TrEMBL record:
Record-level GO BP terms: positive regulation of proteasomal ubiquitin-dependent protein catabolic process; protein polyubiquitination
One Pfam family recorded for the sequence: F-box
Superkingdom field: Eukaryota
Domain F-box: 28-68
Regions that span the bilayer: none
InterPro entries per UniProt: F-box-like_dom_sf, F-box_dom, FIST_C
Protein name: F-box/LRR-repeat protein
SUPFAM superfamilies, alphabetized: F-box domain
Organism from which the protein derives: Morus notabilis
Residues covered by the FIST C-domain domain: 343-493
Amino acid sequence: MDDPSRPSSSSSSRNDTKMVKTTGFFLLTDDLLHNILARLPAPSFASAACVSKSWNRVSSQVLSRPKLASALSLDPSPQVAVREVIDKVLTDPIRPDFAIASVGSGFRLYDIFKLISKKLGTKTPIIISTANGIIGRDALTDELKEWDLSDDDGSITSVDENFGIVLTVGFVPGLKVDVIPLLRSTKELRDALVEKFVMDIRDYTDSVSGCKSPVGIILFGMAQEGLVNMKPILNILDYAMPEETVIVGDERGRFLYRTANESRNFCGSAKFFTDAVALTFARDRNNTHAIGNIQFHVALSNGVSAIGPTYRAASIRVNCLDHSTWLTAKIEGQRAILDGQRIMNDINVTLEDHVDSSDLYIGVTKRRNCSIGSERPRIITFLSFYGIVGGDEEYLYVNGLGIRTGNRFQFYGSDPDTALNSIGRVSLDLKNFKFNESTKNISHEVFGGFIFSCYGRGDTFFTQEDVDSSPFVKNFPGVPFAGIFCGGEIGRSSSSLTEEVAIEDAKDSAAFVFHFRRRRRRTEDTPVCVHDAGSNFTTSPLKEERKVVINRLLQPQPESHAQLEPQLESQSPLEPQPLAILNEVEVGPLVCIDQTKFGSSHGSTLRKRGVPPI
């Protein structure tokens, strides 16, 4: 029999609930709410932003700065690997404006695509691609890992052993982000719609920013030998985009994608193949609340050194079946035409037979007329790299197409010492970049980075670990970053030199740095911490009780879902609800955020303007 002197449990629950609802409500200042929302994981944060207009306003203040989140998993199970990286990148508040996932070929792209799309909502632009290796911090241990999946000779390991995923999610207020595809008709297999690709990028940028030049492009090309030749595509893109537009990416891989604008989504189309996709970053002209500008910085590292004299191509034959070029050549200034065997013998003598042909390239200097639409053609000069297959008494054989009779070229060999020296220059470049920005009257913050490195540049190439990531990690410790080992790394930066040069498929690396700049103020607005929030109230007999209630709101609540439901039903959707609900109610993925209404942004080879520092 119940003791009549003791209150019933239901009565106690009602009193507790009433205290939270009446007392706790008046204690929930903006500063306190800001501090609490900032501690929530992304799914709970997304639900909290939908509670009321005032909560949404405070949540926007929590995410007033740009943010990058990244995680890596080497678990062989795709479900486990995706769960690990998703849980890590959504640990803290973030509204994804874009997502990039790179996986080993042991994972099926479609499986990974479904798992990630389900968690990130329907409006987030996503690119899922295969990689020859991944770089990042482990989702469980936070340990730095460079996982190059190629063997010592540069060949790719067995598909069954090629597991792993690195996921990067970005929130970039002040920018609009979407995926622009490069299409090729299924009826015209040889002709990609390159001009349309460039115009689509310009039109998208113009529609959201009022100008035709994007801030940056991350490009992923499709590996289809004989059908997709990214070199001329990159040349046109290099011509069409101003120097201020940063371009990085992976020339050869496989990918799936989803656009924010469904009209641009041709993934799986029966009418078009997608030869490449450009994750395009453009200024948001409607963003009137921006407190600064997001900018990109690129640092380039090359891993080859020049060998021997300069040659000119004397005769050219093209083999479209294996996507290769056969050529003879003569040394610059001489008349004798040399076959492939003679050329290779001379190079081997120079190198004293220390380099295998698989580590040799020719860098071909080209001059081409380029134009888009009705624009006046302009001549550009660039350098394209071709891997050496071998040579015999007839021809020198190289991978790739696009060499013409009379083109000048020089041999290059992969060189760990050159690569290490170049890595040192990259580290110094990033150090100077950080120092120069900090000395100006500008509040400067690097919030993320991405590395595109040539496969084969791992620990077997350098004979030491984690070399490619070291410049970023040393200069920006604790800043999120990710990276991949590519089949053809792409990177472009401006130079004081006037020539435009492309470094292609030649043991190179590009570091892509996200940074945020805003004017300094005399006093910075710093959220009030939870401890201070309790002491900011005026002295009163209820001061200690208020502190107790604040602390209670930050702890897991004892009420059950059933006890909380009547509170939810009795409240107007525009009234703030008791914060205790956030610790009890399970919420789904970020699909509950209306990004348009709430103001969130929707979202080959190393190329560079200027002669490579060799």
